[in-house]
Amino acid sequence: MAITRGTALVATLRKVAQLTGQAGLDALETSELVLADVLVSASDVVFDRLKGDGVDPALLTTSAAFERVAAWTFLATLAATGHVRTPGEDPETTSGRFYALADKFYREAPVDLSSGDEPARAGGGVPSVGNMYGPGWVFGGGSGTGPGSWHNTGIPGRRT
User: Apex CA 134: angle with CA 130 and CA 135, to 5°?
Assistant: First the structure.
């Protein structure tokens, strides 16, 4: 499944808890937050980061590997606003720790792209090779002098 902008990689709090091991998320369902929007925003962060790294999220076949990244980004966002708390830590510290975990899982996630006509990664196309003497050197023609000449051997100063 490809990653698209505006679509949550992790759709429920139950899945977030499963991916992160974070307890006590049930209380968030009764809060004033619109959790679906925050889940979409966390997934958009993953989408933007992939684009920034030169990966086309539409060709990604390993989107499930990025669910954990979206889940930790979701928790980091909620921790920064004080909705998720860790005893003995201020919201900034908790948020920083959660963002660090999201970054760790992002770096470890495999990037496999669907095969097709597109290069596997940005810039991964076939290099083009040009003839430095022009088409006349290969196919003949020209005036008989210079790089486009039929008689040019390719060795400077030597003609046949």
Answer: 100
